[in-house]
Amino acid sequence: MKKVAYIITGAAGREIVSGCLLNTVSAGCHGREVTALHFAEDGVFFLLEGTDTGEKIERAMKEQGVKVIVCECSQEARDMTDKMIEGVRIGHFADFYEAAGDADVVAL
Fold first, then answer.
1. CATH number of the domain within which 53 lies
2. What is the pLDDT of residues 53-107, one digit of tens each?
3. Domain boundaries, position 27
């Protein structure tokens, strides 16, 4: 199966990210193996603890082994440090590249 990693940068794509993407990834029926999700800019709000999207991302990490990275600069600028779901790695693009591993595709 082909592998894919995603970079999620904005909350404007909420319908696609929280609906289509996270529903299929968390349920294990995405059609590709998702290796990593990298959240930056306003996309960090998808990682809020106590939200439906946060729960879907936690499920994807636990059940599908998806690695989740949040941009350190973006989460600090939005005061998200203590408000995110557990298990998210705070880092930079180098951390995303490592987590994405041998993904065949990186999608925005």
1. 3.40.1260.10
2. 999 999 999 999 999 999 999 999 999 989 999 999 999 999 999 999 999 999 9
3. 3-107
- Domains contained in the chain, number: 1
Q: What pTM did the predictor assign?
A: 0.93
Quickly list DSSP for the chain: --EEEEEE--GGGHIIIIIIIHHHHHHT-SSSEEEEEEE-GGGGGGGBTTSHHHHHHHHHHHHH--EEEEEHHHHHHTT-TTTBPTTPEEE-HHHHHHHHTT-SEEE-
Decide: 70 and 47 in contact? Cβ < 8 Å. yes
